[in-house]
Design a protein that fits this description.
298 residues; alpha/beta; Glutathione S-transferase Yfyf (Class Pi), Chain A, domain 2; Rossmann fold; 2 domains; 4-stranded parallel β-sheet; 10% strand
Length: 298
Amino acid sequence: MSKKQYAFYPGCSSQKGASAANYTTSIGMMCDKLDIQLNEIPDWNCCGASIGYAEGGELPRLVLSARNLALAEQNLGGQDVVSGCPACWLATRESVERLHESQSLLAEANEALKEAGLVLKNETKARHMVEVLVEDIGFEGLKKPVVKPLGDLKFAGYVGCQTNRPFGIAGESFENPVYLDKMVEAVGAEAVKYDQKVTCCGGALAFSEPDKSQKQIRDIVESAYDHGADMIVTPCQLCQANVEIYQSEINKKQGTKFNMPVVYYSQLLTVAYGGSAKDAGLDGQLIRADKLEQIASK
């Protein structure tokens, strides 16, 4: 069977050696088992999601993603641009849509891109990795490579706010999306009832207003414990980092004893498809997902 081909935009946090490099590791193994080939966009640049709204203006922010789109068109023509990062996905998709809406803005973007020897036709779709899994592979397709069903593993599916808004997955509820639950249930785990699915982790406030951010995180983690989850599963690097890292800080300040693993959906799928703990990037967790590692070792 020929593999499905996509232009892959890793994003800064998921590149080799970065904070979410283990996410990309697990995506690679997962995609191999699903006959998906991710072709990295050559010489890609930051999408500007973290700083793009800091008084830089609309055009410079859009051109950052437009350059990646132009590189994809030039080198990987016809392939959808796929990212695992919700912030990168939103920034790229916004650029596609804004430049479709305004021919004058597209002309200005191309004037800037001309300095780099590029031109953007804007014929490429921007998609999140979970869109590819749900819409192109399907839940039944996700079941086929399973060799190690995840058994009695219980998880809280934490979508977060960016992967859910403003676009979301086609046909999904914004208040109670179920695609993440269904993806992981397809490989044998059990989704618990969870009332924090789309709560913001407070990522934008982590440094400026840490008490507010940590209140959000405490609610997310406590709900997972209260509903009997073994771990929290997310499609977002920022959510994963915030909810995992700040549990120890909350413990120090508030006397809690949180130790809830926070993993990516791709790590669960990789283990279910026969990958080792290393294949799944589980060695990159601060809070080890012991139950998942035990399944991987069988």
